[in-house]
Amino acid sequence: MQDNLLSRITIEPEICHGKPTIRGLRCPVENLLELLASGMSIEALLEDFPDLEREDFLACLQYAAKLMQVKGIYRIAS
Fold first, then answer.
1. Is residue 64 within a helix (H) or strand (E), and if so which, with residue range?
2. pLDDT of 11-64, one tens digit each?
């Protein structure tokens, strides 16, 4: 199922400046993750984004988890 979820994430240079989006729609993964992190539920987001499906939000979470599977994380000077 995880690979199937990740197939929902698309990167196309002509859509949202090449940022990862959901199924080629103009819904950047970054924005959806920010909304989830703010405390919005998937159910509430489905009402706000009728073109998206529950699996799209699960794909965003899976994508973020995969990005964290790196050898090291370094603090960036602020």
1. helix 54-67
2. 999 999 999 999 989 999 999 999 999 999 999 999 999 999 999 999 999 999
Statement: 2-67 belongs to CATH 3.20.20.70 = no
Of 30, 38, 14, 16, which is closest to residue 67 (Cα–Cα)? Answer: 30
Which pairs with CB-CB distance under 8 Å and at least 24 residues apart come from 17-20?
Answer: 20/63
SS3 49: coil
Helix or strand run (H / E) with residue 10: strand 9-10
> pTM higher than 0.85 for the full model?
no
